[in-house]
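Dear support,

I submitted the protein below through the web form. The confirmation email said the job was done, but the results page showed an empty box. After a refresh the structure appeared. I'm attaching both so you can tell me whether what I see now is the final result or a partial one.
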Amino acid sequence: MQVLPETIRLVAFDLDGTLVDAYPAIRDSLNYMLGHFGLPPCSLTVVKRSVGWGVDTLVGTFVNPQQKDEALRIFREHHDRRLRRDIRLLPGAGELLSYLDRQGCRLAVASNRPTEFCLIILESLGIRGYFSEVRGGDSVSVPKPDPEILRCVLKGAGIPASEAVYVGDMTVDILCGRQAGVITVAVPTGSCTLAQIRAEKPDILVRSLDELRALFAARQKARFPTQKQIS
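What the results page shows now:
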């Protein structure tokens, strides 16, 4: 059985594909931008497999270098509006955040999305208050898989890597967490397949956020056993 250490005081999350489903919004903004250049639209599946490396990389994948600056401007302007509607939490996300908050865990977001877009999503979903640290890819010099973003989160929270967990849906998240020295938890609800995640060997692999909440609950029960368990 997978076990989380009792010493964990900080849980950091990736955003897209981990806590939220914003893929339709990304597709709509990307296709709006592609339409401006007379390029064919992309399917949701193609978009889902393309995100996770930052908006510059995403947009640059679909246009030529000469178009990139204008394409980024068009994408960002559309996305700023599109992100304010029809974004949803992934199953179990709200319950997990509420549970961890009640247990006194510090919570953070570490995403390759621009910080502004992260905040729009969190505020639109009414969950901004859970997070003491929100870091986007534009807040660091090098995006994930470089560990700088998690090191900044740890420094801001004043918590050592040995007492932190990073939860993500992509191999880039596992690599980032491993290099930062935190426990890596992967959930196959986003851009990477289960096979890709398994190949990167995260410390803990869960099928859902409900399963992750159960692991935290099991840790809590082990720390404070009931009278029946004691006898």
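Response: this is the final, complete result; the empty box was a page-load delay. The CA atoms of residues 75 and 143 lie 19 Å apart.
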